[in-house]
Amino acid sequence: KPRKGINMITPLKMSSETAVAELTRLYESYGYTKYKMSKFEVYDLYAENKSFLKCENIITFSDLSGRLLALKPDVTLSIVKSVKDEAAVPYKLYYNENIYRVNRGSKDYSEITQVGLEYIGDVDLYSTFEVISLAVKGLNMISGRNILDISHLGFINGLLDETGISAAQRERVYTLLSERNTHELKSYCIECGVDAFLISIITALSEIYGEFKKTLAAVRALSINNTMHNALDELEDLYGLLKKLKLNKSINLDFSIVNDVTYYNGIIFQGFIEGIPGVILSGGRYDNLLKKLGKNTGAIGFAVYTDTLNSYFVPESPYDIDCVLIYNENDDVYAVSEAAHRLLAQGKGVLVQKKVQKDIKAARYYKMADGKAVEINGLP
After folding, report:
1. Starting at the edge strand that comes first in sequence, how are the strands of the sheet with 209-211 ordered?
2. 3-state DSSP call for residue 201?
């Protein structure tokens, strides 16, 4: 879906390595501690929660005892499995992990880098605000041109509760909402026997997208019960806090964001940055996942897909390194070392080599002459 204000051509100025370093520093400054996990996990954990993973194929193997293990396709599930039920204080964790999945539409394996954080415990307005503010700040670090689309499953479910449709029918409605397929959505609701008034609200909701403050009034007009009212109140309170910290400039309401309600509840969100045509950040509140795994507490978090950044990264400097220093077998090794040290002392990066690499692009080139580095015009 196109995002208003997002230019899909502008290249990025931050690599994935830089983004990882900046994001982890940000999370640590808010008291989140690093969670480190194994590359693999018992397969059953993932097999029982495939819809949460949104992937069918999981890379598996057997260990020496015959247990079926899986290369981890997700981090959140492993974190949730490891936390204690009803901890005295919330878990505030961040991670920088690789996950392994089979590409959709192919049989190729992918190693995907994710950086994210999880808040597991009593989720209130402040903790929700903190997590989403960190999502916004992270997007701002990567690019000043970004958008965070936000939704609330409570609002959508409050509306669908009025229809009386089955769980299977709801799943189809969620899919059509996510696709913004207004025509088919209307036809399907008619087929399900939904009241005409409710159909008008559902189809109107599928067409609503835009800047939070302007769009909220239109969404308020569609609210018809307390569940829906409360969801909008939470969104409005959250937006008010973001506004006070000047973090609201690129917040949009988008009710086409619909995650699996078996796991998610409450606020959900997706982040986009200029130069990348897909989702770069995804998160939300997932109390239902905790309940499914026998944990009596709440949770909210998000992941940033940092591996995507390098495909769109264009460094500001056209050079691979500042200087190349070329020597030969007759040059004094100490003199070569001293020449390199003098260039390094000027704050320059130096590649010292005997065999010339023509694929390395440097701002300046030097060769050894009479025991000193002498600048030359390009590679010899």
Report:
1. 33-34, 91-102, 109-121, 298-304, 281-285, 267-273, 146-152, 251-254, 209-211
2. helix
| SS3 assignment, position 31 | coil
Round to whole Å and give the CA distance between 194 and 159. Answer: 11
Residue 151's DSSP bridge partners are: 268
d(CA 224, CA 205): 13
Q: What percent of the chain has pLDDT over 90?
A: 58
Residue-wise pLDDT for 241-276, tens only, equals 999 999 999 999 999 998 777 788 999 999 998 878
Q: Is 276 helix (H, G, I), strand (E, B) or coil?
A: coil
Q: Which residue, 178, 83, 142, is CA-closest to 304?
A: 142
Nearest by Cα to 149 from 220, 215, 75: 215
Query: Is residue 46 scored above 90 in pLDDT?
Result: no
DSSP-based three-state secondary structure for 45: helix
**Rounded distance between C-alpha atoms, residue 304 and residue 281, angstroms:** 4
Residue 87 pLDDT: 66
Amino acid identity for residue 13 in this structure? K
Which residue is associated with the tokens 């509760």? 161
- Rounded Cα distance, 197 and 162, in Å: 11
pTM of the model: 0.80
Q: How far apart are CA 37 and CA 278, in angstroms?
A: 27
Q: Would you give the end-to-end CA distance of the chain in angstroms?
A: 51
pLDDT class for 104, splitting at 50, 70, 90? low
Q: Which residues make beta-bridge pairs with 94?
A: 34, 117
- Contacts for 311-319: CB closer than 8 Å, 24+ residues apart: 311/276, 312/11, 312/12, 312/275, 312/276, 313/11, 313/12, 313/13, 313/14, 313/15, 313/16, 314/11, 314/12, 314/13, 315/13, 315/15, 316/13, 318/361, 319/361, 319/362, 319/363
295 near 80, Cβ under 8 Å? yes
Type of residue found at 286: Y
d(CA 64, CA 74): 24
Sign of CA dihedral 304, 307, 313, 315: positive
